Request: fold
Amino acid sequence: MDTPARDFCRFDEDDDSAFYSFPRRVVHIDDGAIAALTRLYAALVPSSGRVLDLMSSWRSHLPVSFRGAAIGLGLNSVEMAENPQLTASVVHDLNREPGLPFADAAFDAVVCAVSIQYLTRPLKVFREVRRVLRPGAPFIVSFSNRCFPDKAVALWRATDDQQHVEVVTAYFADSAGPGCAWAAVETFGHTPSLADPLYAVWARPLASPG
Reply:
């Protein structure tokens, strides 16, 4: 995928920490889409594992059966403090610093819900996610047809729902390289006619050779 710098420009290029400085407490998708996402997490996320909720907020949508540790990484400390499923949280701006403050192979799953459209350096973030995941652990990226248009990158604004699936699939493919290999990408779509759609794309890191 050819992604020139202009594809990751935004209408609002001001510091993200200012935009997200106050809590919004909104879920961005309706109950049906949330239920579909929770079912997907129940199928893919280890129920007693260590999970990183990337670009986290006040809800993580993990199933009630989840009994592991969920670490939130986001921009608003108040929102994350009000998230009942997080056991810890870290305030961190991925657009300013795509490096993740965690050790190699630290997580059994990484999830990113309805936020992928805001990443300005997604390939660097995907490589970092690969680093902090254990081999075979899923990175699950979900999204709908909503966004804050001022903060969404140009590539996302210029493409439709099905193309968004292709964009995220390309993020996995294009982030691969030495020490960053993904198994086959899988996708999911929940598209009711009169409600919020939900799409998900996920892959699992392969074990490093040697």
